[in-house]
Amino acid sequence: MRGMGYLFKEGVRSVWNNRMMSAASIGVLASCLLITGMAMLLSFNVRNIVDQMGKDNQITVFLDVSVDEITAVQKIGPEIRRLDNISSCEFYSKDEGIVKWEQELGPLFGELQGTENPLPHAFHVAMVDLSQYDTTVDSIKQVEGVDMITDRSEVAKRLTDLNTLVTQVGLWLVAALGIISLFIISNSVRMTMYSRRFEISIMKSVGATNHFVRTPFVIEGVVLGLISGILSSVIVAFLYEAMISAVKYIVPIEEIPYSDMAFNMTAGFIIFGMIIGAIGALISIGRYLNMEGGEILGW
Amino acid sequence: MIQFKNVSKIYPNGTHALNDVSINIGKGEFVFMVGSSGAGKSTFLKLIMKEEEPTSGTIIINDTDITNMKRRRVPYLRRTMGIVFQDFRLIDKMTVFDNVAFAMRVIGARPAAVKKRVNYILGLVGLRDKAQNRPAELSGGEQQRVSLARALVNNPSLIIADEPTGNIDPEMSFEIIELLNEINKQGTTIIVVTHEHELVHRFKNRVIEIQGGKIAADSGVPEEKAEVPIEISEEELAKIPDEIAEEIPDVSADEINREALLAIGDEEADE
Fold it and tell me: Which residues from B are below 8 Å from A292, CB to CB?
């Protein structure tokens, strides 16, 4: 289209001419994108941990201390395997248990140990579908000789709740920060328009179409969004690494590497930033496009 | 060219700016519009420029009824007009060249056409040597000539000058009106709103006086100017180089000011 080069140049130039306001807009929009991005990354990771738990759905079924090894292996084991939703059931003897306990407790173990191994025999049971956790656990409890089962349902529930919370908070953050960004960008563009109202009035008087009046300001908004998108995607990469290191220091987790999400995150930031920029600009322009002559100049 | 048929304009605050005005301004006329402040002159111009809508009546410009013209068509109507303001309305941060070029750029003219046409128009108003100056470095008269150049650059068939001499000294005022007279001789219709009676008396043109929103007096077209429209022979038309005609943006061939085109053609030949 004729004149697009001129309009593009005007839009970009105006970002530089109003650099203070542009910097403020970029700062706010980039911060919004950053918070949104971090909330998303957190949500992805929580979901990933929950998924991992689903795959690593092993529970420990402890037998009564009076149950001997032969009864456990020949009677209780096959009975558990016959139940629905059981993918594997491996015997875990009390001798293996005491060895593991010794390794975990270290010097303390010596003080605690009596003459007999106090641990019961156990089975490591894996489920096909973790969502049927409660039903399956109830069935296992019915098997004679089963004393107790390590209950991981609370952990799974907490993680699922956390994921829901992070997703919901993330969504609210996106909505709230999106509105704030729109407000800031539209104000920035409005200031540009105010400073260029003279030009706008001349443009209209010589017969510029609304498209011609509008385009440089939309380009300005889009450029602000683009810069914010690039800036926030760079910062979020560093911030993510730092956050993961901090979390790993407290809890050992298997995080999603940023490189796996880098393209989607960057593209998302840039597209979201540009859309917010364009909408913000359009909000400001509408008012001026409906004005004529001296009205634009405030006369 | 311009026809007002029983046009009235009442603003939302109740001001009756124009009351049942009917008037014809022919193609190629030079009209002075006089009247006291608040008489309705500005409203008259705003209605022509489609900055305001009439409350009642019909307005026809270039055989087109603009009374109910769609909003998206208005920019194209304005491209047939050039506006000169009392306060010049030049953009300080732009050079003289860019101020004039601005009017072409915003309607999507090609850079090559802009360069050629702006240089020509600046020559016409005697400011080619000031092309790279900023408006602040020029006198009031020169600034108004830049404003006039901007109004002319898109080759309008109508020039509307709203008190063009209001901010400049008398000598310069005559210069500006003289320049408008020259442009008028090439067939462009000119409407000048002014308070300066001396100017009106010196230049023998049609004078329309508006008072209280009505046409209080209309001198009619002076006899010596009754045959203003210029005729150009087929031979002269043939002299216009095709590539020049193509360079003029967004103006149909029959709307193009032929004298100006011939002048560009001559310039090309000189180069």
Answer: 46, 51-52
